[in-house]
Amino acid sequence: MPNLSLGCVGSTSAIFVCLAVAGCGGGNAVERSQSARASAALFVREAVRGNVDATYEGMLAAQQRRVDRTLYRVCMTVKRPDPNAQVIVEFESNVSLRLPGVNRKLPTVMAMIDVRKRGGGLGTPLIVYVARETGTWHWSLTSKAFAALSKGQCPS
Prior knowledge:
The radius of gyration is 14 Å and the shape is globular. Helix 1 (26-34) packs antiparallel against helix 2. The chain has one domain (8-150): Roll (Nuclear Transport Factor 2, Chain: A). Mean pLDDT is 78; it is low at 1-27. Strands 1, 3, 4, 5 and 6 form a five-stranded antiparallel β-sheet that branches. Helices cover 33% and strands 24% of the residues. It is α+β, with helices and mostly antiparallel strands and 156 residues long.
C-alpha cells in the first residue's frame, strides 16, 4: 500500500492506500459523483493499484492548486502496487471539520476502509475524508501531507 499519509489516516504498512476502479478519466468522475462511500473506496483502490494520477485527479481542487503534480507523483508512487487487493468500506459518517487548504465549508464524510491484500487475512484499516465539491466527491490530504507537499516536500 502507498504511504497513506496523504488523505487517509491509519496504520500503513509497506505501501500506500486510497480510491476505486482502474484507469483514470471519465469512469472515475462518474463514480465520484455517485456517493461518498464509492468515492472513498475508489480513491483507496487507485492508490493500492499504483494509479497516482487518478488519486491526484480525485484530490480536492483547492489542494491540487497548491500541490505540484510532479512532486505528488514522486512522493506518492506506490512501491509495490497490488491490483488484487480488496477494498471494503466498513462505515461512513458525516463530519464537520476544516479540510487543509480549503477556505470554505464543504459537505464532508469520513469513511473507515479495510484493505485486504492477496492471501486474505485482516487488512489495514484507514480513515479517508471525502468532500463534495462541484457535484462530485473528492478526497482530502491530511494536514501533515498537505503542509509538506504545499512547501515542495514529500510527507514523512
